[in-house]
Amino acid sequence: MSKQSILVVDDTPENIDVLNGILNEEYDVKVAINGMMALKIAQKMKPDIILLDIMMPGMDGYEVCEALKANMETQKIPVIFVTAKNQIVDEARGFEVGAVDYITKPVSPPIVLARVKTQLAIYDQSRTLESLVKERTQELDDTRLEIIRRLGRAAEYRDNETGMHVIRMSKYSQLIAKEIGLDDEQAELILNASPMHDIGKIGIPDNVLLKPGKLTNEEFDIIKQHPEYGVMIMGEHSSELLKLANDAANSHHEKWNGRGYPNGTKGEDIPLIGRIAAVADVFDALTSERPYKKAWTIEDAVGLIERESGEQFDPRIVKAFVNVLPEILKVKEQYAD
Question: Which of 3.30.1490.190, 3.40.50.1440, 3.40.50.150, 3.40.50.2300 is the CATH number of 5-107?
Answer without folding.
Answer: 3.40.50.2300
